[in-house]
Amino acid sequence: MFTGIVAALGRIERCEPLGTTGVRLVVEAGGLGLDDVSIGDSVAIQGACMTVVGIEGSRLSFDVSAESLARTVGLSQPGEVNLEKALRLADRLGGHLVSGHVDGLGEVRRFEAVGESWLLVVRAPVELGRYLAYKGSITVNGVSLTVNTVDDSPSGTDFAINLIPHTIAVTTLKHLKPGDRVNLEIDLIARYCERLLSVGAGGAPGASGPAA
């Protein structure tokens, strides 16, 4: 579990073929403290939860499956990435609850300066639009953000976000441009709300599931 508050900017230095379909990433961790990181720990890279399989100095290695590559962007070639270590139960929750499981890919529609801040408009796939709400939470490339507007259309849902200068400075969002794809994770609470509301009126939540 994560918070969507980026802890450091790292860089994928190498992306090596792994078997016939996957890759091994070697990531320079930048300012991410590694004193409490061990092999087997989880680290979010551009919002995708990955398992540490190697540590060498300030470099971390991760094995990424073909399934993960197919459902994310930003993990298949060298470049700057957002990094966050897994949440500890005693940590301050500065963003929102983030699982690190990418739900879909969005497309940047607008990204432009507005005064001292930046306006980011992303089109989410139709199937994710129902989870987006005014003042709700969304994770874009691993960054916890607040939705300012929501505009539904047959081709998807456009949502707007205001980015303060600090967010621009400490994340990879500064590199976005119209047409880029981004990793999206919907609010965990919205996912469970949908499940609760979809349960038939004739039974209690979970009644149709297997017995424990």
Write a brief structural summary.
The chain is mostly beta strands and about 210 residues long.
Describe what you observe in this structure.
By secondary structure, the protein is mainly β. It has two domains: 8-85, Elongation Factor Tu (Ef-tu), domain 3 (Beta Barrel); 104-197, Elongation Factor Tu (Ef-tu), domain 3, CATH 2.40.30.20. It is built from four helices and 13 strands. The strands form two sheets. A seven-stranded antiparallel sheet has the order 10-9-13-7-8-12-11. A six-stranded antiparallel barrel has the order 1-2-5-4-3-6. The longest helix is centred in the last third of the chain and has 11 residues, at 188-198.
Class inferred from helices and paired strands: mainly beta
Strand content: 35-45%
Order of helices and strands: EEEEEHEEEHEEEEHEH
Topology-level CATH name of the largest domain: Elongation Factor Tu (Ef-tu), domain 3
Q: How do the strands line up in the largest sheet?
A: 10-9-13-7-8-12-11
DSSP E strands, number:
13
Radius of gyration: 18 Å
Termini distance?
Answer: 24 Å
What overall form do the CA principal axes indicate?
globular
The count of helical stretches stands at 4
Mean pLDDT: 92
Overall helicity: 10-25%
Number of spatially distinct domains: 2
Q: Which CATH top level class of the largest domain fits?
A: Mainly Beta
Shape-level CATH architecture of the largest domain: Beta Barrel
Could you give a short account of the major beta sheet? Answer: 7 strands, antiparallel
